[in-house]
Design a protein that fits this description.
- By secondary structure, this protein is an alpha/beta fold.
- It contains eleven helices and nine strands.
- Helices cover about 35% and strands about 15% of the residues.
- The strands form three sheets. The protein has a five-stranded parallel β-sheet. A two-stranded antiparallel ribbon has the order 1-2.
- The N terminus and C terminus are likely disordered.
Amino acid sequence: MATTTGDVEKDGAPAGAWLGSLRAAGRAIVDYALPPRCPGCGVIVGEDRQFCLTCWSSLDFLDGPSCSRCSIPLPTALPGAPIVCGACLASPPPFDGAPAAVAYGPVARTVALRLKYGRRTGHARLMARLMARRLATLGAIDDMLLVPVPLHRWRLWSRGFNQAALVADELARLTGAARDHHLLLRVKSTASLRGKGRRERERIVAGAFTLATGAKARVAGRHLVLVDDVHASGATLRAAAKMLNRSGAARVSALSWARVVPDALMSGNIFDFASLDSDMTNEG
């Protein structure tokens, strides 16, 4: 009788079971030589991309009441009651919601920097896993199109990857949301925002983005969600969102891994929040 691949045996055991045992043995050898480490502090942990208890406990998850326009935490607001912060009342942002998974702090900063500059590309999966539940708060996944904040071509060639695109890919894999890496283009290499005031930051990023050819046809009726790693000054996200609003999309939102919030600013962990945005020196 003919046998399928799954019926083939080796030393009396099904091939599938034998291969599974071989993989498990190989994993044990790798874990012994290169054990999984906490992405925040580097101590040995039980699984890949798993925080140790100390680092996990230090993360400040942004799940509480927030501004309905910019998603900045509003601790005194009533849960479930829509409210707009004073800044958005004075100057409404070009996006409808901009949640983040965690507040910017030492651990969140380490994870973002190790992805961006340490080439720990596996951290994108960790970040996306914690960002996915915040993505769900923005609306129906089926209506969304994830748009990673693009790098200028010189920065992309230098680094070899766009960290926002890696995170968007993982979010798409986890949630089933569609993504488009090439809808938004960065056509201007921007200077550093370090030490600049708000008006100067806005001037620097003005004209940095444009829409790809045929973008309007690709986004008709869609909910576009900008994806980035850190939301600090917000200048980059605002400039990108303004351009996406010209596409005729039904709605534009933003999502990030970590966000600088007032509590973090007062903790001493942040020394120049504008320099922590996507517009760091030579980032454009």
